[in-house]
Amino acid sequence: MKNWGTSPELPDILETRGRVISYQEAICEAMETSLEENSAVRVLGEGVTDPAGIYGTTKNLHLKFGKKRVFDVPLAEGLITGIGTGMALVGLKPIVIHPRNDFLLLTMDQLCNQAAKWSFMFGGKIKVPLVVRTIACRGWGSAAQHAQALHSILAHFPGLKILLPFSPSDAKGFILWAVFKSESPVIIMEHKWLYRLRGDVPIGRYIAYPGKPNIIRKGKDITIVGISYGLFEALQASSELADAGIEAEVIDTRSLRPLDFSTIFQSVEKTGRVLVVDTGHLLFGSSGEIITKVIEKVSLSNLKSPPARIGIPDSPTPAFSESSFYPSSKNIVSIVKKMVKCK
Amino acid sequence: MKIINKLYQSVSLIRQAELKIVEVYPRDIIQCPVHLSIGQEAIAVALSAHLRKGDFLLGTHRSHALYLANGGDLKKFFAELLGKVEGCSGGYGGSMHLIDLEHGLLGTSSIVGGILPIGIGVSFGLKPSKVVALLFGDGACDEGIFYESLSFAELRKVPVIFLCENNRYSVYTHIKERRTTPAWKVAQCLGINSLFVPIKIANDAVELYKILQGPIERLRRKDNGPLFIECETVRALDHHGIESDIKKGFRPITEELLFKKYCPLVLTGRHINGEKAKEIDQRNRKRVEKAFSEALKSKSLRLKVEHEELGHLTRIT
User: Fold this and answer.
1) Which of A335, B31, B214, B235 is most buried by its number of CB atoms within 10 A?
2) Domain A214-341's class?
């Protein structure tokens, strides 16, 4: 990592059969298809028309589709989200982009008080088909205010759909699902470190439905539930664990709202062990929620070890020493080995 | 009907509807806070009289006047306050969350200032010569989003009417404790066509109607938006509820005197014959009684909560 905001080159960790492109290219395709196939789509956000174009995902879209449909905005997050909500109320299909998810904290009123509740407050008489894209980042001195993953905060609120694509196919298919299928506010939380991850991505208007987790790797000894970039470390760890004779089942949650927990329950019933790998803080977050659900539903006598979780430490992110700050596949391997020994 | 009669009719209907709320509120059948418009009715009335089909509007927690002035159904209004299925918001919103899509009211929100960017977003979906009207209080002008919204609205010249009802109080905190520069001046500094309307005009629906006519017509004709109007007015009763906070000593007696001097019903009524005004009031009282009793008899919204299933909510009736 030599440049702030650059995503690392990742090894090809996903099985591929069809056409292979990167996570970033998949997002580009979804943006272009959305604008091409739905005339109600509008794209707005800080920097959508600048030469960098939101890490390349909106680059030159304004030249092709015009500045009435793709436009830049002031540095005013509440305003930007609110404009999106207003557009959504009158039949447009806005894709609002907040390039760094840390800035979502400046628009919590518009997301959680207004957009999330608008339809409910009026007895469902009006819909808010708003799409928000945002990106979590880390690394190379990003430090405390540019390296957060805030999905757990947003997933607290009924009324919002919270999608966290890990695979390139979801990165594309979620945007197209939000644009063509959803009638309520959707927040798509991408991860900058996945932008160069490569995988199978269908051509054309490919729609990925959120809600059902995806078992990326089958195994019998432990269930590793990953969120966003956490899955990359989980998959790396699972290869290493396989060498040690431990077969991990790796599950991609894909979305937090909606989330059909039954896939996770069935897996844990089988393996008897569960580890959650999150990209956010652990206390009061998604990892705790997933483990609670497991404890509520899976018969405790089937659990061979106490559930465990790993995520970023309970501290703001330091600008340096990041390699030790973030949990790695090594940490996952070490935790899993201890859990599997536990009878 | 002559426009003057229409304006008086509207002010009178809102007043009669809210007096009905005042009458029944002690019975606790309206089980939600009510932020009454008494003292401020003329502003929503004059604004609504200039709106047409295809225009949109948004309001705040204090939007009884806006909903009714804009042609909202009286029975659905009372039904909403009473938590009935037939309420304009299906009984889910209560007094602070009113909607009337038939007449372009896209909703009202109680987190002040929140509607400002939403209204700008709505303007991107307007047909030619249509406008968005946003009615909000002076409290909303204290929020950061107020500045974000006005600045962008002028940048993009959006056809939005920002109409501020300045009653000087954010709950019980006087505007002098909250700001130095008046909101209309801030708007003017940002390059917006901005007006200040003193209470003697703002509380008279006929005079305010005349003042608004030119600027709103110009806004429709060409891309010279937005428009900012600050109307000085007075809140007759408490921030919410039916009592007088002035009698409790929360606001000075001068506020009560201001209402006595500039009551919108009286000021607007001066433009028509006294007998005619009485007749309109009487007719509105009857309409209100009928709508209220029908709403009261209608079916209540009942929700069932599964506390053992994450508090899952289902509608029973």
Assistant:
1) B235
2) alpha beta
SS3 of residue A182 by DSSP: coil
> Which residues on chain A are in Cβ contact (under 8 Å) with B92?
120-124
Neighboring chain B residues of A86 at a CB cutoff of 8 Å: 117-125
Interface of B with A in 132-161 (CB under 8 A): 144-145, 148-149, 151-152, 155
**3-class secondary structure, B86:** coil
Look up residue B201 and give its two tokens.
Answer: 């005009």
Does the beta carbon of B120 lie under 8 angstroms from any beta carbon of chain A?
A: yes
- A20-200 folds as Rossmann fold (3.40.50)
Range of the domain at B234: 3-315
List of chain A residues whose C-beta atoms are within 8 Å of the C-beta of residue B89: 121-123, 125
Q: In chain A, list all ranges with CATH 3.40.50.920.
A: 214-341
pTM of the predicted structure, to 2 decimals: 0.97
Q: Tens-of-pLDDT digits for all 317 residues of chain B?
A: 799 999 999 999 999 999 999 999 999 999 999 999 999 999 999 999 999 999 999 999 999 999 999 999 999 999 999 999 999 999 999 999 999 999 999 999 999 999 999 999 999 999 999 999 999 999 999 999 999 999 999 999 999 999 999 999 999 999 999 999 999 999 999 999 999 999 999 999 999 999 999 999 999 998 788 999 999 999 999 999 999 999 999 999 999 999 999 999 999 999 999 999 999 999 999 999 999 999 999 999 999 998 887 778 888 87
Enumerate the CATH 3.40.50.970 domain ranges in chain A, comma separated.
20-200
CA A154/CA A104 separation, integer angstroms: 9
Number of domains in chain B: 1
What local confidence, expressed as pLDDT, does residue A320 receive? 87
Q: How many CB atoms lie within 10 A of CB B198?
A: 12
- What CATH number is given to the structural domain containing B258? 3.40.50.970
* ipTM score of complex: 0.96
- Token output for A251: 């599950």
Residue ranges of chain A whose CB lies within 8 Å of a chain B CB: 42, 73-74, 76, 78-92, 94, 109-110, 113-114, 118, 120-126
CA distance B135 to B120: 13
Which of B88, B111, B125 has the CB atom closest to A113's CB atom? B111
Residue B33: Cβ within 10 Å count = 13
Query: Is A210:A177 a contact under the CB 8 Å cutoff?
Result: yes
| Sheet with A274-281: strands ordered across | A214-217, A248-252, A222-226, A274-281, A308-312
